[in-house]
Fold these 3 entries.
Entry 1:
Amino acid sequence: AAGVIQSPRHLIKEKRETATLKCYPIPRHDTVYWYQQGPGQDPQFLISFYEKMQSDKGSIPDRFSAQQFSDYHSELNMSSLELGDSALYFCASSTGTSGYSGANVLTFGAGSRLTVL
Amino acid sequence: GQSLEQPSEVTAVEGAIVQINCTYQTSGFYGLSWYQQHDGGAPTFLSYNALDGLEETGRFSSFLSRSDSYGYLLLQELQMKDSASYFCAVGNYGQNFVFGPGTRLSVLP
C-alpha cells in the first residue's frame, strides 16, 4: 500500500539558509499535517491543509510557510534557519473532515531530519 | 488552549499488562487517539475513541471518558517490541491534532 512520502530524508543547512521539505500524501487523502519533533519531545503541530486550503495553524514560526498544491502534495518552506530549527519534521495525511472517523487516523511519513549548523 | 498530560515513563516486564493514562483539556474535542513511536521512527496509529467506552484492537485497548476528560491505553501480553513512546492525541474541530508529551514504555525480559 502507498504511504506518505517525504523528501529529503536528511538535510544539513547553515544558519540563515533556506530549506524546503516536500510531502506526498497517500492517494485520495485530502488533509495534510506538518509536525516538528525535537529530540525527546512530542510532535508539535505546525500547520494543516484540507483540500489545498490552509485549515489550521499551530506553533509555526513566521519564518516558515507551507502550501498544498493541486496534486495534493505539500511543501514546507523554512527561511533564515536557526540552530533551534534542527528537528525531525513529519508530514501526515488523513481523509475526511473534522469529526469524521477517517479523519482521526493520521498516517505519518518517515520524516525529514533537518540539521542546522 | 489545549493541554494533555501523560506519565513520562512506565516500566513493565514481558507478558504483563500496562495502562497508560491521558488527561486532556481542549475545546471542540471530538476524539482521542493513540500513537506508538519507536526511536527514530514515525508515529503509527494504534487506536481511536470518539465515544465513551472501550475499544479493543488485538493486544491493545483504549478507553475514553469524555465527562472526565480522561482516557487510557491498555497494553496486554507485553512484548519486547512494545518498548516505545506512546502518545495520546486530541482531535478537535480545528483540523489539527495536539499530541501529549508521550510516555516512554520500557519492557524488561
Entry 2:
Amino acid sequence: EIVMMQSPATLSVSPGERATLSCRASQSVSSNLAWYQQKPGQAPRLLIYGASTRATGIPARFSGSGSGTEFTLTISSLQSEDFAVYYCQQYNNWPPWTFGQGTKVEIK
Amino acid sequence: QVQLVQSGAEVKKPGASVKVSCKASGYTFTSYDINWVRQATGQGLEWMGWMNPNSGNTGYAQKFQGRVTMTRNTSISTAYMELSSLRSEDTAVYYCARGGYCTGGVCLNNWFDPWGQGTLVTVSS
C-alpha cells in the first residue's frame, strides 16, 4: 500500500498571500495524483488531477506540480473561500486508493 | 449535471447493520466505478472499497473485509454499501464517489469526481 504524507498539518495564511502545500508518496505514483478541497460540513471537491490539471470550474489561482513522489499544491492568492482542508490522493496503484492526512489552511 | 445523491442519516445500535444508497444521475451509471469513503468526525478520508456497476465486481479495503458489501441496481442507477457488525468506531460520514471510466475491462481517470453529499451513520447504544 502506498502511504501519502502531507505537510504541514496546519498552514496559517493571510488573505491575499500564497499558500504552498506538500504531499509525498512512499513510492512513485507517476503523475497519478489528485488534490481535493473540503470545507466544513461539505463533501470533498476535486481540484486537481494528473498532478497538475485543474478540474472543471476550478480557478486559475490553484495550481499543482510534481511527479514521482513529491507534489505541491499552490494557491497563488488566498481568497476567503479557500480556507479549508486539502487532501492529496494517489490513484497509480489501486486498490487501495490512499489519501494523505490533510492540510488545514486557516486564516492567520 | 453529474450528481450522486445519498440516503439520509442513520442511527444504529452496536452489532446492527446499515445500508446506504447512492443514486447517480447525469451520466451512464454502468460506465464508471463507484467508490465508498468514510470520514470520522475531525478525521481524514478513509477508502473503504469500490464497485464496477457494469460487472458488479468489487474490491474492499482489508480493514473492512468480511463486514462490507457493495451492490448495485442498474435499473435505477443506484449503488449500495452495507456495513455489518457495527461498533461505535464506525460512527462517521460515509461518502460515495464516482471513480474511473471503465471500458473493455480497462479503467481510466481513476480519481474521484463527483462525491455524494455524505450520509452520517451514528452507532450508539
Entry 3:
Amino acid sequence: GQQVMQIPQYQHVQEGEDFTTYCNSSTTLSNIQWYKQRPGGHPVFLIQLVKSGEVKKQKRLTFQFGEAKKNSSLHITATQTTDVGTYFCAGTSGGSYIPTFGRGTSLIVHP
Amino acid sequence: NAGVTQTPKFQVLKTGQSMTLQCAQDMNHNSMYWYRQDPGMGLRLIYYSASEGTTDKGEVPNGYNVSRLNKREFSLRLESAAPSQTSVYFCASYKRGRFQETQYFGPGTRLLVL
C-alpha cells in the first residue's frame, strides 16, 4: 500500500534559525496536505498542494510539492517559539478519501 | 459550529473493561475516521466510514469495533481493553470540496489502560 515517509523525526533549532521537514511517497499523489499539532493538542490543517511543482506561502512557512508529485517539503524561515509542535504531511492518491499520514516531525525551538 | 467533538476527554480503564468513545461532527461531512496516536508512530487509522451506513477497517483495527450511528456520529468501542490500547484517540471528519480536501480533527481522548 501507499507509504509516506517523513524526515527528520525531531529537529531542535535555536529561535531565528530555519527549519525544513520532508515527505516522500512511495506512489504518485493526487494532493498532499500539511497539518500542525501543538503539544497536547490535535492536528490542525495548514494547507493543501495539488499541482506538480506547486509552491505556496503562509507568512514564514513555504510549502512545496515536487514535480513528480511524490515528495513535498515545509520550510519555516526564522523560527519562533510559537512554531513549536509536530508537523504532519498526509498524501492522497487516486480517488481515495483516506489520507496516508507521515509520522511527523517534531520541532523544538530553543529561545 | 462546534466542529468535531469527542467524549470523554480522559479515561482510565482496567484491563478487560469495555468502553465506547463518542464522536460527533456538525459540518455535514460524509466521511469520518478514528485514529490512534502513539509516540513516534504518527497517526494510525483504526477504522473509517466513507458514508453513513458503511464502515471499513484501517491499518490497526484489531481490538476495536465502530458504529456509524448516523451522518453526525461515529463511535469507537473497545470490548476488552488491553494495556496496548493505551493511546490518544482522535476522531476526524473529511471535507472533500471542489478545490480542497481537509480533515478536521476532534480534541482527542486520552486513554490509559492499567
